[in-house]
User: Fold this.
Amino acid sequence: MEHNMKTKLTGQVFIAVDVSGSALRVRTAQAIKQAETIARALGATQATYLAFDHRIGFEKYAKLGTVRVKELMKFGNGGTDFKPLFARAAEQLHLSLLIVISDMLSPCCPEVNPVPKATVIWLDTEGTVLQRDRKSVV
Assistant:
């Protein structure tokens, strides 16, 4: 399911934040704000926030803009592994949008949509929106 900025979401939104040891708090906070702006533009008012490194260490359903990077960053510092995140997203029956925020230093990042029932947006901590193949789109 692909969305454009004219499409309103009909399901849930996940904002997943890479909190591995290489993640920088200031850049991560800026990327979270950008992810929330994207979600709002698609009609979302709430999201499930997830913090992950080699596992999911934090999960909270909340109003957009209410989860602080400080809450998320205290759960990380391992290496990045996207597999637990994609497994969790695949469990969600009504997921429409998964925004993955990462510094993109992981050696494994799929080039095909790992959650076919949802749109996946890759957002690097430099503020660049990436396609599934990691090429810059904006």
Notes: The chain is about 20% helix and 30% strand. The CA atoms of residues 95 and 122 lie 16 Å apart.
